[in-house]
Amino acid sequence: MASDVILKDVNKVYPNGFHAVYDFNIEIEKGEFIVLAGPSGCGKSTTLRMIAGLEEISSGDLIINGKRVNDVAPKDRDIAMVFQNYALYAHMTVYHNLAFSLTIRKVDPVEIHARVMKAAEILGLVPYLNRKPKQLSGGQRQRVACGRAIVRDPVVFLLDEPLSNLDAKLRGSMRKELMLLHDRLNATFVYVTHDQIEALTLATRIVVMKDGYVQQIATPKEMYDNPANIFVAGFIGTPPMNFYNGKISKDGKKFEHISGTSFKLTANQVAALAEYADKEIVMASRPDYVYVDDASLEKNSGSVFDLKVDYYEYLGSYKLVYGTIGDSEAIIAKIDGRDIVDAAVVKACYDMNKVHFYDKETTNLIV
Ligand code: ATP
Asked: Which residue's alpha carbon is at the smallest distance from atom 5 of ligand 1?
């Protein structure tokens, strides 16, 4: 399948000398939903704005639909952008907001009408075509903003935090609408967010960035199951991953936590961690894989520890237990809502098959 958008060694150095994006490489297939995610200031908007042509590319190549477009004006790039503050024209009706970009491009009026009506149908905006933006709800305004992109019939849709101004409930329903819209249009989306839930729910592939560097590019499942480094492990997933400092035992068969508790490694881990015997290492695991029930404790007898409970939140089908291993590192455990954790210290265990080990120096995933 042909790639729709290719970024090859793309760098951005702002005129003040600040290096905002380093060697960004990706080949985006037609119809993908790529989410650029990361904390504030990591360079995701800069990357999107370089694709849009709103920011000059300092070095590297940007290829859209087989053509190098570094020096092509934004309006000629076959892209359409939806911004966070939808930027609708307050004095125009929904119809004219949708038609505007085509009118200024002098598209044939019959064609404009057909495209506006098609976009309005896709987005369920037909009943609102004669309203002004202030007579719409936040979600409807957001749909008009998407509609303005759809009428342009671009190869690539670029979206910069389009849901960040909406309340939590509306964000949820707009996420669903965006997924459906993406399916219906079968177009390529590149979407910027700092919200890891949007990244996990919307993306075909997520790009996590930090300090201008790409940390990992992977499907949501791959990224959740196997975060490439400690940063990605901490960024993707709520509640966040638990991290433990300790070392591999001299015989290479156990992880010895600083609290004195040891965890028996699986055969696979013993093999992969051979060169780490007697060396410091970071163990990490999702709160989902901590268990306190008798059957699990018996099954995982090599990874039982004392969980000192500070408090817990009951959330219906599950409980979130906040505590520490022994007296040392903080741990969050997501356990079955029926499990009882009333004592100050309870016996808990890990499913060691679900535990990751990271190199303490490089922070990269070992196994
Ligand atoms: P946010 O989620 O806060 O929008 P972001 O990941 O999108 O963050 P960018 O807007 O891409 O971050 O900015 C990346 C870095 O580049 C930041 O440190 C920012 O301060 C810097 N930056 C952005 N615009 C300029 C500029 N015009 N000149 C110099 N530095 C800039």
From this structure: 41
Q: How far is ligand 1, taken at its centre, from the CA of residue 8, in Å?
A: 20
Query: What distance in angstroms lies between residue 337's CA and the mean position of ligand 1's atoms?
Result: 42
Return left, alpha or beta for 74; rule: phi > 0 is left, psi -120 to 50 is alpha, else beta. alpha
Helices 94-104 and 109-123: crossing angle in degrees, nearest 10, is: 140
Q: Which atom of ligand 1 is nearest to the CA of 55?
A: 27
* Secondary structure of residue 279 in the 3-state scheme: coil
The model's confidence at residue 149, banded by pLDDT at 50, 70 and 90, is: confident
In the prediction, which pLDDT does 86 show? 67
CA gap 7, 237 in Å, rounded = 27
The closest residue, in CA terms, to atom 12 on ligand 1 is 41
Q: How far is the CA of 164 from the centre of ligand 1 (A)?
A: 17
Query: Rounded to 10 degrees, what is the CA torsion of 161, 105, 3, 160?
Result: -10
| Residue 50 backbone class (left: φ over 0; alpha: ψ -120 to 50; beta: rest) | alpha
Separation of 149 CA from ligand 1 center, angstroms?
A: 24
Confidence of residue 85 (pLDDT cuts 50, 70, 90): low
pTM of the predicted structure, to 2 decimals? 0.90
